[in-house]
Amino acid sequence: MAADTAGAHVLEYTAEAQHRGPARPTLLTLEDLPPPDTRRWVTRRKAEVVEGVRQGLITREEALARYQLSEEEFQSWERLIDRHGVSALRVTRLQDYRRG
C-alpha cells in the first residue's frame, strides 16, 4: 500500500500486509531493488522499482536502462499504483483496472 509521509513515499510489501491493509511503512535501500537481470516481474518487484525511483535511489532513466523497460511500461506501473494501489500491478488484474 502506498503512503506519503513527510514527502517520502513508503511501501509495505509483504503478502500479509496487502491483505490486511497498511502496515508499518518501510524505506527501501539499493539492496531491496530487484537484480538487473530480472525477467519475472511479480507485483512486489514492480512496486520496488517504482518506489526506488520515487525515493531517489535510482533515476527513472537508470531504472529503464537497468531493467530494460520502456517509458510506457514504467508509467503504467506508476499509474496503476497511484490509482489503485500496489495490488493493481498483478498481471491477472490489469484488464480490470485499465477499464476503470
UniProtKB/TrEMBL annotation:
InterPro entries reported in the protein's UniProt record: DUF1153 (IPR009534), Trp_repressor/repl_initiator (IPR010921), WH-like_DNA-bd_sf (IPR036388)
SUPFAM superfamilies with a match to the protein in the record: TrpR-like (SSF48295)
Molecular-function annotations in GO: sequence-specific DNA binding
One Pfam family recorded for the sequence: DUF1153
Domain of life: Bacteria
Identification of the protein by name: DUF1153 domain-containing protein
